[in-house]
Amino acid sequence: xxxxxxxxxLSFLLAVILLAAKLAGYLAVRLHQPSVLxxxxxxxxxxxxxLNLLHLPLIxxxxxxxxxxxxxxxxxxxxxxxxxxxxxxxxxxxxxxASALAGTLGAxxxxxxxxxxxxxxxxxxxxxxxxxxxLGASSVSISxxxxxxxxxxxxxxxxxxxxxxxxxxxxVIFLLSAFFALTSSSxxxxxxxxxxxxxxxxxxxxxxxxLWLLPWLVKWVRNLPVSQGxxxxxxxxxxxxxxxxELLGGMAAITGAFLAGLMFARSPEKExxxxxxxxxxxxxxxxxxxxxxxxxxxxxxxxxNLELALLVIFSAxxxxxxxxxxxxxxxxxTWRESLQLGVGMVPRAEVSLIxxxxxxxxxxxxAREFSALVxxxxxxxxxxxxxxxxxxxxxxxxxxxxxSKQE
Length: 407
Hints:
The protein is mostly helical. The protein has helices at residues 6-30, 35-46, 64-85, 89-94, 96-120, 125-134, 141-149, 156-183, 188-222, 229-247, 253-264, 270-295, 306-330, 335-344, 350-361, 367-392, 403-406.
């Protein structure tokens, strides 16, 4: 490529991705849809399904795709941190019953339907159960972004959704860990207790740090003669909680980032921190995340096992709609709110794909099952934003937090 260095190639990719994200988001809003839907569709158009942006002749650095993906992962961490920053622990406590029932029932029903699908297509009991487990975990970053745009994140449904995501994540990760522990040749029950202990230790340390040490740390950093010290501290804490969730708790990093946001929501610096972090996240990192979802999808590779893919998609949709919706109804939500909650729990992403990849490596799933999982993730991710928009009956508008302060 001569003088076209990897840095220049990355600069070109990021410029195209950000421009496409904002244009597609604008068009989606003009069509009365959430902007996140447009950003994901832009990624599909830029991906191998059409333009194949990451494999153009002028892009010869194979590591660039991974760099873009990792920048997107920072985006989803900031997105969940901001979602936590919008709330307060007391808000989630009020919706605890709905969160617990929706998260648990949505995961359990998805697992059962996924397992039945595997048995129907000839998988053995263990591979079928594992296929069901891959359908259990929701990824509420897409729904959280949509509810932010609809100004509904602090509604009963929004609070229940975010709390249900924590229950969902803990339950599914625990069940996946238990599956591998009990089917391995090592001491299964000992490994299971270790998994449970790691989760408990993470939550204990995260809450202790956030409730007692973080307020003092914020006050100390605020008085230091450094530029944007509290903003930097917030990013460091968000990344630290995400790392701890993965490495110590064995859970998804987004759970840690969300918990970090909840801890920062108690700080008096919240009002000044929120617009600054919002500008950083939505101006750069978050659009990369949503476009990158589409960049990883090749529509032409999903048609080989159409019947299996359709049934897996159906199981994933019904599992969350009926399971999480029933949980919300049992907790006292209206039928409409229960349906909104069920739709909000529909999206799947990183946990399903990571678990599916582990299943392929372990010989539990084959190429056709993994292809069906990819189709399921794509369908569920694209379906949720317009359905939420329809159910909330509100015009989709870009989120502008503390506009007067930004001006």
